[in-house]
Amino acid sequence: MKQYDLIVIGGGPGGYPGAAAAAAKGWKVALVEARDLGGTCLNRGCIPTKTLLHTTELYRDVQGELALGTMEGAVNVNPAALFAQKVAVTEKLRAGVADLMKRNKVDVLCGHGKVLAPGKVEVTSAEGSEVYETERILLAAGSVPARIPVPGSDLPGVITSDELLDGEANVPARLVIIGGGVIGVEIASVYAALGTEVTILEMLPKILPNMDKEISQNLTQILKKRGIAVKTGAALKEITRGEGGLICHYMVKEKPEEVAADLVLMATGRRANLAGLCAEDLGLEVNRGIVVNDRFETNVPGIWAIGDAISGSIQLAHAATAQAQAAVAYMAGETPKIHLDLVPACIYTSPEIAAVGLTEEQAKEAGFAAKAKKALLHGNAKTIITHQERSFIKVVYDEETHVVLGAQLMAARASDMIDEYAVAIAQKLTMEQMASLIRPHPTFCEAADDAFTL
Ligand code: NAI
């Protein structure tokens, strides 16, 4: 039996920063991880996807230059080397996480963690089981892909992002993606650039249903221009295996339709990873995820939970990191200095999409006299130099006070630019205050001058 101040279950972007934050307080900390340090984000999510996107976007850019005649010669993607590069990147980052744990003197316990009772965690690996004692427990077990329960969803060749991103190079001739959410549009971008015939089936009337309407419409047009078939209002009903490969049967306006594929990717959301996490008699309250209060405390004293595993989670790596750091601060009786309610969301399509704060619709629903100011980037020098697609920045503000309430960006480097909009919202700055800054030229970010000027 060992005595810890904190045991964290789950070594993803929630768990490991939580462990580091606790260790920095001088606590004795253990981190339990059943698979690889870094969790879904590093091993089967954000990092592998962005590695694939980096090369495939570059390839598309080169093709654009070849078409312009500014470059000559034959350039091809080597899928095996591309996927090997993805492995190299994840290995490097994983080593960084392991090093961070070592430097913070966090004990990494390899195995499946299970809470037996408050203060008691069992860790099971191939070598056997051991029970550890601890003052506190932080559950950071993340989420797993949710396969929709239609007939044929378990056929060989029907995979989730787990298998796609954790495996070897797999470049099919025809890929059908079920779900036009974040994973759907990013993976569609990768495979369309690799020459795969890609179809997205989205049940709702638009792809990226939670995003600003104009962003969804623009992205749909851009994806279609790149040869991706985007079918909206298309609910998958069944997958069968026929002579032509895997056949996805779906309904559009009560009319049955079908599309053939060599590979089907289920990108229909993720659910909390709770399998075997707690002993049944622990009585942990669960409602599509672990129920927590605004201090990340569960209903069981001494147990906190954060990230994708909690009820109503926003399923973003950086949200999990912030929540874990906040939970550790609450454990220590401190008030965290993090704006937990302001989470930027980024989608790494080309152009990138980024949003923070409220959309105009949401701001109006929240009772603000909200208005949006839109700046188009078609005259922005960097946008022209780099041959970008139609890009824009939308800033939502309160018409009475001019305080910035939200921003939605569809532009190159939007994921890097979203920060200044988050600062404006967090600090309750006005449009005039934001417009008063000098921004460098030529840059994408200077488009903010126009976006903030009323
Ligand atoms: P999602 O919730 O973004 O999208 C799932 C989509 O599937 C929805 O649009 C839904 O309407 C559709 N759908 C559900 N059932 C369907 C059916 N029967 N037929 C057709 N369409 C159907 O989930 P996704 O894309 O799987 O991503 C999971 C999570 O991972 C997200 O919450 C996201 O936050 C996170 N993520 C974040 C990324 C980023 O920050 N760049 C990248 C990838 C994932």
Write up this protein.
With 454 residues, this protein is α/β, with parallel strands linked by helices. It has 3 domains: 3-47 and 81-144 and 271-331, FAD/NAD(P)-binding domain; 158-268, FAD/NAD(P)-binding domain; 351-452, FAD/NAD-linked reductase, C-terminal dimerisation domain (Enolase-like, domain 1). It is built from 13 helices and 22 strands. It has helices spanning 15-23, 39-44, 46-68, 79-103, 161-166, 182-193, 213-225, 317-331, 360-365, 381-385, 414-426, 431-435, 447-452; strands at 3-9, 29-33, 107-110, 112-117, 120-125, 128-139, 143-145, 158-160, 174-178, 197-201, 229-231, 234-242, 245-252, 255-261, 263-266, 270-272, 303-305, 345-347, 352-357, 370-376, 392-398, 404-411. The strands form 5 sheets. Strands 1, 2, 3, 4, 5, 6 and 17 form a 7-stranded mixed beta sheet that branches. A 5-stranded parallel beta sheet has the order 8-15-9-10-11. A 5-stranded antiparallel beta sheet has the order 18-19-22-21-20. Strand 13 and strand 14 (255-261) form a beta hairpin. The longest helix is centred in the N-terminal third of the chain and has 25 residues, at 79-103. It is globular. The structure holds 1,4-dihydronicotinamide adenine dinucleotide (NAI).
